[in-house]
Amino acid sequence: MRRPLHPFYRTQQYKTLTLQGIGLPPRLGLLFRQFTLMEHDMTREETGLRCAAGIVIAFGILTALAAWPPLNPGIVLLGDLLIWPLDGRESGTDPMTRLMFAIGGGVLAAWGWLIWRLTAELLPREPALARSLIRQSVLTWFVIDSTGSVLAGAPANVVGNLAFLALFLVPLAWGRRDVAA
Q1: What phi and psi, each to the nearest 5 degrees, are found at residue 40?
Q2: What does the pLDDT read at residue 19?
Q3: Strand partners of residue 4
Q4: For residues 178 and 127, is the Cβ–Cβ distance under 8 A?
Q5: What's 23's DSSP letter?
Q6: DSSP class per residue in 24-62
Q7: Would the pTM count as exceeding 0.85?
Q8: Of 21, 82, 139, 158, which has the highest C-beta tally within 10 A?
């Protein structure tokens, strides 16, 4: 059940404070309004889905930045952990690997952004459709990524994928339970 925001949050004074508070020039501030201004309090489902989408966006950005070798130690270490044993053989400097970091990171960040926007724009108006789209995209990613990980000799990645899967399915379950109540 949505609760309306306190009237102060709809005032121009709040909007001005918020945009100034994050230090954005007015034009850029308009681009980021969706992060700060809402017409309602977010539900537990919306908060959970936005957190999950934010984690996917951040992971996508970190993966894309790993295309530049000075920024790839964290992703390379993760790969080394997932492609057992931990032997330091993965360097992440091969041009094909760097290209896949860039492409994969960009796709991940875009997918996270899409889920963020579906949660912000579609979920409040068409919750069943938004939940279905998010659930189907997450399950499609899980099946393909997990299968590919096993085929690539990194079955440990399936465990990490289960954590990402839970990041999305748990808030979606909260939404279904709230509707039933």
Answers
A1: -155, 165
A2: 46
A3: 40
A4: no
A5: T
A6: --HHHHHHTHHHH--SBPPPHHHHHHHHHHHHHHHHHHH
A7: no
A8: 82
